Amino acid sequence: MIATNTAWDAENAKLGKRPIYVFRIGGEGRVYTTCDLARAGVTGTLPAYAAWLKTPRGATQSIDVVNGSSSIGELECEVVEHLGEMRDLVGTHTLDGRAAVLSVGYPGIAYSNFVALHTYQINKIVPGRDYTSWLFRSRDRQMSQKRTIWTHPENGLALSESNPWIIQGTPVEIVQAVHLFALGRDAAEIDRATLTALDSGAEGLYKTVRPFWFQMSEAFEAKAFLETEIYKCSGVYPVVDNLGRLSLRAFRAPAAGPVSVFSFDENNMCILPQIDRMPIINEVVFKIDEPPKGGSTGGAGNELVFCEATSLSRYGRTARQTIDSKGLRTVLGAQWWCEEVASRMFRRFAGTSAEFRGGAPVVRIEAFLLTLPVWTGDYVSLSHPLMPDILTGVKGVTNRLMEVIDREPDYSNGRMRYRLLDTGLTGLEGAHQFAPSARDFVIGTTEIY
């Protein structure tokens, strides 16, 4: 969820409000706004500004939770031409590649309390159709991962069989290695706190084994590599936060348990929720232990097949997910790893939960602008008295815990659209843990896991 502040929250919660959007180009002293900040009563130290910005539509982030991929968000900010000043800016400055930050605030609050909505990178600038405005098109920083890695990060020489880059570790370690070393990106562009938490022993997700070992002997695209070889194989998906940082979300809820950050109900939704279902997945095939090129060590190639017998019997059909990994190694614990990932996949998508009678429900909702702090990857609760509960057959859904997998803002019309995934998290307790004690295995006030 976007980090906000008390003054901003108070204005955002009002039924009648007028958002003020601010577009800032990295390295430029002037920002562009949708209204005159001083006349709107914005207080504090104001930057140099020009009220030439049209209200933007917003940037969508869509997640494929099964295959561990995320769309690259695109933001378009339209700035009105004024006496040739924008033409001069575009024509005399190299703006492509610079940061593009869209923020929002409200009349009467301090400028320092404005909140960043998107931090992207300018990809293209073109004039509007009638030449009365300029369109600044930006994309999120996943675009930097579209780069092809040709050289060894440690010696700068071309990747080859005689000069391979060896990467070994947990998913989080490899993501950071690719981002920081292969791509040469700044550490500030990744969400270190969340990545560190995923890799912590307390979470119990990835520290048990370090099952990946890659011998990179030829050029590769960073984004495709991470999605197919790391995210898909590990049950995680990437998220780009409002500050432009790369973060990850795991299939499994945090050890402390899933916590809703926002409650959607009939008072903040504009239309009736639309219900769909995810496809059933009841068979997962892992292809692992690919032999290293030019070497005799490593496996000869193994195939692991995991089946969810209850789902196969209940639905009378096979729905296979194939995961072909070049880095998972049996000698590093990959067999246990694959079994764990398959188990999580079945828990979410096999349709075997006592309350599910088919694929995991997916709900599309349209809500008012006050919901905009909700972000992709958040847990939220959903209630609506008219929505049919397809899990029980009654009318009305109350406090159903769901995961946000799509976020589509429409700032120009004051609407937010979300797609919510229900994988049976409602009522799920936090993980159990041993309490610290002078004696081993003594239970304190906390539970055991």
Could you explain how this protein is built, in words?
The protein has 7 helices and 24 strands. A hairpin with a 4-residue loop joins strand 4 and strand 5 (69-70). Strands 4, 5, 16, 17, 21, 22, 23 and 24 form an 8-stranded mixed beta sheet that branches. The chain has a 7-stranded mixed beta sheet with strand order 3-2-1-7-8-9-6. The chain is globular. Helix content is 16%, strand content 31%. With 449 residues, it is α+β, with helices and mostly antiparallel strands. Among the domains are: 6-139, no CATH class; 146-250, no CATH class; 283-349.
Features:
449 residues; alpha+beta; 7-stranded mixed beta sheet; 7 helices; 31% strand; disordered C terminus
Nutshell version of this structure?
The chain is α+β, with helices and mostly antiparallel strands and about 450 residues long. It has 7 helices and 24 strands.
Helix and strand content put the structural class at: alpha+beta
Overall body shape: globular
In DSSP terms (H or I, runs of 4 or more residues), the helix count works out at: 7
Q: Name the poorly predicted regions.
A: 437-443, 445-449
- The beta-strand count equals 24
> What average pLDDT do the residues reach?
90
What share of residues is helical? 10-25%
Largest β sheet strand count, sense and barrel closure: 8 strands, mixed
Gap from first CA to last CA: 28 Å
Radius of gyration: 24 Å
Oligomer: single chain
Strand content range: 25-35%
